[in-house]
Amino acid sequence: MPSFQITLSPSKRAAGRFVYRVRRALQKALAEEQERRGLNQSAVARAIGVHRSVVNRELRGGKDITLGRVAELAWALGRRAVLELPEESQASEGSTYRRFCFQTKLPPNVSQKAASFTLRKTSAAA
Amino acid sequence: MLTFMATRLELVMQGHLHRLDPVLEPQEREWRLIYTSPRLRNWMETELAGLEATWNSEITPLQQLDALVNEFCSGCTLSFGHQFKPIKHVRGGIWELKTPDLRIFGWFHVKDCFIGYRAEHADYVKKHDLYYGLAGEAAHFRNQIDLNEPKFVPGDDPNAVVSNYS
Fold first, then answer.
1. What confidence category does residue A119 fall into, taking pLDDT thresholds of 50, 70 and 90?
2. Which residues of B touch A7 (CB under 8 A)?
3. How much is the pTM?
4. Which has the closest alpha carbon to B34: B90, B105, B120?
5. Kind and range of the H or E element at A95?
6. Is the pLDDT of residue A112 over 60?
7. How many helices and strands, by DSSP H and E, does chain B display?
8. What is the mean pLDDT of chain B?
């Protein structure tokens, strides 16, 4: 079947997906902690000394999020941000390249991503 | 009288719908599908790259859409709690796919198969309160297109339109 693609350079594609997955991983962690122990955005904001609206915009994509803030939010959520930069064969070209890739907890029916980023629970990471 | 209704494949071959290749990574599989109207494809190819992100975000609307398409089509969980969900029912079986700066209006022909009709910058949609208007346009396109019945999944239950919603 004929198809078309969103035209984007490989580097910009990697960057966009990386930032998007970081944000989604944080959203997922917050939702889990909210369900587990009632943690909300206000509590997270208080823990790192910013206004709730800042956390809200960072999580929703209305504000850029720095690497430092990723670590702060992870800490407030009782997690540890872990970034891995594995070498990966690029199947389409047969070459080897480095890229960033986040790994959120994937659904059981979805294949695992090769490269990984995790927000590990602090107790498990220690 | 026998009325002929076309399949998605036939509509693609006729140019009435377009199939979006999500450019999945080698280890990913396509669990959900996206088709577009000619209008949406044209917008993606001519206007999307020129849109700017609100707040001058480092991720452009073009990158946002690519990331959303990747997440959607690779079958990832879409909803985290009540706060974070990139799909939302508007009205009459019309749904929007959302990024921070984009709103894409369309419907689900069957579960896990989204047909997008039109997209706009979120600021534009909010400023002019166009949610119902654009949903109406999408519904009109859905009514007009010669797609086999049933043309869409009715209702507002996200679990009825996508697998692995939450």
1. confident
2. 45, 49
3. 0.86
4. B105
5. strand A95-98
6. no
7. 6, 6
8. 94
Three-class secondary structure of residue B58 per DSSP: coil
Pure H helices in A1-126: 10-37, 41-48, 52-60, 67-76, 122-125
Whether residue A62 and residue B54 make contact (CB cut-off 8 A), yes or no, is yes
* Chain-chain contact of A111 with B27 (C-beta, under 8 angstroms): yes
Q: How far apart are CA B115 and CA B42, in angstroms?
A: 15
Q: Record the tokens describing residue B89, joined without a space.
A: 């029912």
CB contact under 8 A, A1 and B19: yes
- Chain A residues in contact with B66 (beta carbon < 8 A): 6, 8, 13, 16-17
Contact assessment for residue A1 and residue B11, using Cβ atoms and an 8 Å cutoff:
no
pLDDT tens, B67-114? 999 999 999 999 998 889 999 999 999 999 999 999 999 999 999 999
Question: What token pair was written down for A43?
Answer: 């509590």
Taking CA atoms, what residue in A is nearest to B31? A110
Burial of A40-68, coded b for 16+ CB within 10 Å and e otherwise, reads: ebebbbeeeeeeeebbbbbbebbbebeee
- Residues of chain B positioned with their CB less than 8 A from the CB of A8: 62-63, 66
**Residue length, chain A?**
126
> For A28-74, how does the pLDDT look when each residue is reduced to its tens digit (9 = 90+)?
999 999 999 999 999 999 999 999 999 999 999 999 999 999 999 99
